[in-house]
Amino acid sequence: MVSALVFSTLLWLSLILALRFCLKLLLSYHQWMFEQHGRVSNTTKVWVTLLRLLSGRKPLLYSYQTSLPHLPVPAVRDTLTRYLESVRPLLTDLEYKRMTDLANEFESSLGNRLQRYLKLKALWATNYVSDWWEEYIYLRGRGPIMVNSNYYGMDFLYVTPTSVQAARAGNTITALLLYRRMVNREELTPVRLHEAFPHLCASSAQCERMFNTTRTPGVETDVLQHWQDSEFVAVYSRGRYYRLWVYRAGRLLSAREIEHQIQWILDDPSPPLPGEEKLGALTAGDRVPWAQIRKEHFSSGVNKRSLDIIEKAAFFVTLDDEAQGMKGDDPTGNLDRYAKSLLHGKCYDRWFDKSFSIVIYKNGKSGLNAEHSWADAPTVAHLWEYTLATDAFQLGYTEDGHCKGEVERSLPPPHRLSWEIPSESTTVYVHTNVHAMISFSLTVAKALADDVDCHVFPFRDFGKGKIKKLRVSPDAFIQISLQLAYFRDRGSFCLTYEASMTRLFREGRTETVRSCSNQSCAFVKALEGGEVTLLPQCKRLFRQASEKHQNLYRMAMTGAGIDRHLFCLYVVSKYLGVDSPFLKEVLSEPWCLSTSQTPVQQMELFDLKNHPDFVSLGGGFGPVADDGYGVSYIIVGEDMINFHVSSKHSCGETDSHRFGAQIAKALQDIMAVLSADTPSSSKGPAQPQSKKLL
């Protein structure tokens, strides 16, 4: 019996390991991404069949984490070749020759040595990029994370489900907690890139730290702290902090009960305690002062207990005393102010260290501000899509705008947090004076916030429906339009960043698509030539640019990108204490155009045909370079693309509204070119035509 038990156990474990190994081999196949639409190879057909046989029909959230392949380390020569190709349109002949010499010298000397160390790390690390990316790009940054790192998500464009602030907060909090329950039970619907492809690990790994997570400041580096569970949320209202219990005896409170508790907070007449109102400014300023003050005044006693409540809360909620949204006499200006409010608010009424903060405005509008180190935007977008859909279509409201359900009258009221912040007169040293450091952090944050120029606009002329009829990738169409818009705005091309996901690999995060290519620049130059005789050539060049962009995106997604590999080689060089002029120059190049698409991942939740007004606005982020633009866009339905443009007022060469107009004009012009009939040679010689007409 013992022998049979041991044998059956070993056989069972062997089968599981064999199944995981087979799945890992199958999931390492990426050729299906490079095949033309409608032309599936026999190899891919066999792959799909085997994958369906070995994968479950209803996998759990984390089912495939151990089966996903590790991110491969590209060859140094391949990365350098792709890098030199990407910078060719941005450099003169002499600059390109110099950069080529630097790259060749790096490859022949230091590159292979750094590569060997990196491959050693890839053997034992789950992902050779993710931990270094999180630490060195996010957590070690000593500047403000507000604007520079955090990003935002918006409410519906046309619809506000209720104008009752407490009710909107009740449904929103309930929807978020239902999502957390699905994550904890691994019931979340897996994200797929292909109908045959199972759950992708990037989202699942990041979901683990979505709730009950806070970024805590340090002198040299910040730390992400995550707690297994939390039965309360932290609420900020008119300068006061509260703990709101959302569970009672193991039962999740109903949306109506949470609304009742939120209304109690709104009706509370008590004033803020000394130093309490603008305490959140510490999370908006530089990280070192916040770390020092936290250690000095918030590491013990009542201050530590109150700070623990905020940091251990499931998430943070701000009950904003302003009204936001598109409605009003100035829709365009209202959307711009709405974006700035979500990006930085008043610089003290958000807790920017929390994994995400929910903002509920006075008129019922809502939004989200997310910290970036723990997850990338698609993960938060998935959460926000579910929250908006559940709020509007599942939970719903009564006719008078309140949450549905009953209220247990014996519920204890929310707990007001207490603070003991010493007055300025009792503190000798300025660097340990809480009031002085709050004022200092607020000054730094306000200067940063006031410098941000945000512009949000819905593009309604056409959407992906019309673009796809031309057999063009919507993302490629938009990216090439951005190249044309930037060329018209600045008179030159620039290094362009487009974020792509490496979800095909275990613990994958992002990779850079360098959207400014030789092909896209050739198309822009031809289009700006402005003659009808160039129309066939423009179409041909556009097709080449579109195919090149799609190939670059696929290469990035399948682990053959450029920037993460070079970044990791640079980190290895720093560990070894050696300098590389090539890597130093590459890593210091500014991204003057930083772009990202917000994916719509759960279309089944939004019935836009029957509810066309429930259109998502998407979200945005601050500019990456002081003299550049940040552009986020979301393709909604078949006929709309929403854009979020950001830049800095302090740069005289950038203007978000001007660039937004250039984007809209570029989209229209490229669509006109692709839709136009090619002039026939029988009609005689073609006449010059202005750029505007073309």
Query: What is the general shape?
Result: globular
Mean pLDDT reading: 90
Low-confidence stretches are 680-694
Major sheet size, sense and barrel closure: 8 strands, mixed
Strand content: 5-15%
- Mind telling me the C-alpha Rg? 27 Å
Q: Supply the helix-strand structural class.
A: alpha+beta
Instruction: List how many beta strands DSSP finds.
Output: 18
Order of strands side by side in the largest beta sheet?
A: 11-5-4-8-9-10-1-16
**Termini Cα gap:** 84 Å
Helical content (DSSP H or I, runs of 4+): 40-55%
Count of individual helical segments: 20
Membrane topology: Multi-pass membrane protein
Family: Belongs to the carnitine/choline acetyltransferase family.
Protein name: carnitine O-palmitoyltransferase
EC number: 2.3.1.21
What would you say this structure looks like, in words?
With 694 residues, the protein is an alpha+beta fold. The chain has helices spanning 2-27, 42-54, 76-87, 93-124, 130-139, 165-184, 201-207, 255-267, 287-297, 301-312, 331-344, 377-395, 434-451, 464-469, 474-490, 518-527, 535-557, 563-576, 581-587, 656-675, and strands at residues 151-154, 213-216, 223-226, 232-237, 240-245, 247-248, 251-252, 316-319, 356-360, 366-370, 415-416, 452-459, 496-501, 510-514, 593-597, 619-621, 629-636, 640-648. A hairpin with an 8-residue loop joins strand 13 (496-501) and strand 14. Helix 3 runs antiparallel to helix 4, helix 15 (474-490) packs across helix 20 and helix 16 packs antiparallel against helix 17 (535-557). The chain is globular, with a radius of gyration of 27 Å. It starts with a helix and ends in a 19-residue tail after the last helix.
